[in-house]
Amino acid sequence: MPINPGMLLQQLGQGSPRQSCSGQPTMPATLQQLLLPETPKTHRQGQTDLQGLLQTWPLIVIYADKWPHDEHEQRYNSPAGNKVADIIHGEQDRTSDIVLKSIHQSYDALQYPLLFPYGDDRYHFGIPLHTPGGQLTTSSKALLCKAFYSCEEIAGQSLSLLCKSGDGLSHAFVRLDLKQKDLSDISILQGYIHLRYVDISNNRVTDLESLNNLTHLLSLKADYNQLEKIALRPFPFLQHASFSFNKIMHTSGLQHPLLEHLNLNNNQIEDVKGLDGSLLTKLHTLEIKENKIESLEHLNIPSLRNLYIGYNAINSLNGISRMNALETLYLRKNNIADLTGLEETIIDLKYINLRENRIDSIAEIMKLQCLPSLKILSLTDNPVCNEDDFRTEVLVTLLGLDKLNKDEFADEEKIEALEIYRQRQAEKKKSVELENMDSVV
Predict the structure, then answer these.
(1) CA pseudo-torsion sign 152, 154, 157, 159
(2) Which of 5, 94, 159, 405 is the most exposed place for a label (fewest CB within 10 A)?
(3) What is the phi/psi pair of residue 403, to 5°?
(4) Around Cβ 277, how many Cβ atoms within 10 Å?
């Protein structure tokens, strides 16, 4: 938990400061006890008491923007001048709430643990500022301290689900819900390495690079943002990823070995060749509706069982047979007029939605006879639906169907279709026999 400035003021106010041998005030034991490895956080309370306290309390100046030559930029110099620094976050151009001025070298040690007790980077003057659209500014402006800690506070309030860490030696919050926080920069998440479930939907995020340190991720939702790419390093445990309603144009950067469900709906994808089945060996469900895809030629994911690729511009099913584990095929509102490409190797395909395409004859539907497990077929708003006895003819062609255009077949319909089928088969057999007799004569 962060140090509470109100509690700090209350305890520091109990008695006057002690004097050292040199006549300078020394640090009370109460403050030493409060300097635990915690991170200070902004609070506005106690300002009146603080002003009175500063009249009798030593001041320490911290040079956050200077460092020794050839040293790390965040190793601070010893105080050497009458400068002012904030340790309560806020606008950098206003009067400080807390001003500490060093008058003795023994107080130098306070600088580091007070601001960075764990030695982490956290806020520094070099964090670049982003525009509301998420792009880096071209000027030299940097992120204000107030904005940084506001984002950190939002993240802290959005954490939940306390679990053991990956090494099993400690506990950490593993779920983060940042939906609808109007965020454009999520770089602060680089330090949340224990997260497993992250939801940053409905923001203005343009880059996911800050998530690359989250190697324990199981689920990532980044819907309704401004992403143009999804280049991420392979996450060894990621199982569910959703990037719908973004501006993604290609599918490269998805190489997660345990990924099972991927949602890329409502983007600007034209080709799926970036999806490598040899790297996505566990992927069983792909949602990629409402994009600009014209062909399935480059889609080769043998493990795929459910493919939702409606509302695109597909005009051919060539290549679909490579995914012989398919059970669900959603092709609504494309430009399909020819069903060539579906083969008997797809033995488990049970559901096909071809609604709002350009299929115009029962002869095309006969190409589905090679699918032994097909039970549900949707052909609504295709020209073929206008043919006489459409429903009966489809059932005669595909006797195993249970449902057509959302309506189940009654037992009477199935019996009638079976009788018509047998009658046609008998007529066909008789016709073949007559042809054979004529050829012998």
Answers:
(1) negative
(2) 94
(3) -145, 135
(4) 15
Q: What is the pLDDT of residue 73?
A: 55
0.90 exceeded by pTM: no
Give me the residues of the chain with pLDDT under 70, please. Answer: 1-151, 438-441
Task: Specify whether the CB–CB gap between 214 and 192 falls below 8 A.
Answer: yes
From the list 195, 134, 133, the residue with the least C-alpha distance to 159 is: 195
Q: Which helix (H) or strand (E) holds 426?
A: helix 411-440
Do residues 381 and 355 lie in contact, with contact meaning Cβ atoms separated by under 8 Å? yes
Cα separation, 227 vs 288, whole angstroms:
15
Q: Is the dihedral of CA 122, 124, 128, 134 positive or negative?
A: positive
Give the helix/strand (H/E) hosting 241: strand 240-242
pLDDT for 157: 84
Domain residue ranges in the chain: 1-128+139-157, 166-429
Name the 3-class secondary structure at 308: strand
* Residue 198 DSSP SS3: strand
Please say whether the beta carbons of 160 and 179 come within 8 A.
Answer: no
**Residues 6+ positions from 180 with CB-CB distance below 8 Å:** 201, 202, 203
| 121 residue type, one letter | D
Contact present, 346 and 326 (Cβ < 8 Å):
yes
Report the relative pairing of strands 197-199 and 351-353 from DSSP bridges: unpaired
Residue 78: how many CB atoms within 10 A of its CB? 11
Q: Which residues contact 346 (CB under 8 A, 6 or more apart)?
A: 320, 321, 323, 324, 326, 371
Looking from the CA of 358 toward its CB, the CA atoms found within 13 Å total: 9
CATH level 3 topology of 166-429: 3.80.10
Q: How far apart are CA 176 and CA 192, in angstroms?
A: 9
Find where tokens 């991420």 sit. 232
Please say whether the beta carbons of 312 and 331 come within 8 A.
no
